[in-house]
Specification:
about 325 residues; 60s Ribosomal Protein L30, Chain: A; globular; disordered C terminus; about 25% strand; alpha+beta; Phosphoribosyl-aminoimidazole Synthetase, Chain A, domain 2; 13 strands; four-stranded mixed sheet; seven-stranded mixed sheet
């Protein structure tokens, strides 16, 4: 199958977004909007970000788009369009590559996203670059730099599950763990919190960051951007009911630095807590208060209170180009 036949095989029959003027078929797509436009891009390389040992082609595509939608969620944007550039090695069949796009399409349907372009080339290793575009009301994008002393720190969902799933998959001892299918799915097919984030559109002073590298890293990013100190209460950090089957050291490392849960960590004024809880309930989102924002000390910093001891939490998650 040549490039043009392949593109015809994956393009949508009809589009969902009324803002789209021209989709696939010309040199570029065209859309228009009277809102702020939010865009993000991530690249995924076989052997670095994913492996056929732990994920099917379908799951690879699903997860690649999920990571990007999570970035839009952290900005409070409605996910709308995506573009995919893919480098295809000879060892990957066209059937396999189409399954990657099928995985993306399945997730895209949940937010009525449209595939509007990209590129396909041959190369030595499979590489996927996904660009996403979303809309947010003018001036209402969420940033890491808006946390204020007195804010509470919250997180959605549970933490450490994706890393636990990867551990189970790479150890090849699925029967040795309780509820292994849950943990594997959290790694292979995460659920971005876009509906929750978008539902915060009428709330003021909400700070958001997506949990892609672990809350140790993400909390430090908020502290640095906002010039504040953040204190996390270890006992309050939410984990799933079967997470305690792993060793204490694994639990600690994975919930702080495991990453790829694609949950949201954020801050909000204490007086607005009941309002955000209602939004979480309305969107079926687990929401937990895990910390407090205070004035910056000598430098932006994050601490954790664990067993009545206060320790510094360093910015240690997944480090790219290390």
């Amino acid at each position: 199958m040549n490039e043009f036949s392949f593109i015809n095989s994956i393009k949508q029959i009809k589009y969902n977004q009324p803002s789209l003027v021209k989709g696939i078929g010309d040199d570029a797509a065209v859309f228009r909007s009277n809102q702020d436009i939010v865009t993000a891009v991530d690249s995924f390389v076989e052997g670095v970000h994913f492996s056929r040992e732990t994920m099917s082609p379908y799951q690879t595509g699903y997860r690649a788009l999920a990571a990007n939608i999570s970035d839009l969620a952290a900005m409070g944007a409605v996910p709308t369009f995506y573009l995919v550039s893919i480098v295809i090695p000879k060892k990957w069949s066209i059937k396999d590559v189409k399954e990657i796009f099928d995985g993306m399409k399945e997730l895209a349907k949940q937010d009525h996203m449209d595939l509007i372009g990209g590129d396909t080339v041959s190369g030595l290793e499979l590489s996927i670059s996904v660009t996403v575009i979303g809309f947010v009301e003018k001036g209402m994008a969420r940033y890491r730099s808006t946390a204020k002393p007195g804010d509470v720190v919250f997180v959605t969902g549970t933490l450490g599950d994706a890393r636990a799933g990867l551990h189970i998959l790479t150890e090849h001892k699925e029967n040795a763990y309780t509820n292994s299918s849950y943990f594997k799915k959290r790694h292979q097919m995460p659920s971005p919190r876009s509906s929750f984030a978008v539902s915060l559109k009428n709330m003021d002073c909400v700070t958001l960051n997506d949990v892609s590298d672990g809350i140790a890293s993400e909390a430090n990013e908020i502290a640095e951007a906002s010039h504040v100190t953040i204190t996390l209460y270890d006992d309050d950090i939410p984990v799933s009911k079967d997470f305690h089957q792993f060793s204490p050291s694994q639990q600690y490392e994975w919930k702080y630095s495991g990453g790829e849960d694609f949950e949201l960590i954020g801050t909000i004024a204490e007086e607005n807590w009941d309002e955000i809880v209602k939004i979480a309930n309305d969107t079926g989102t687990q929401l937990t208060k895990i910390g407090l924002v205070t004035e910056m000390e000598e430098e932006p910093s994050v601490y954790a209170i664990r067993d009545n001891n206060k320790t510094r939490v360093n910015k240690n998650g997944y480090i790219h180009l290390k």
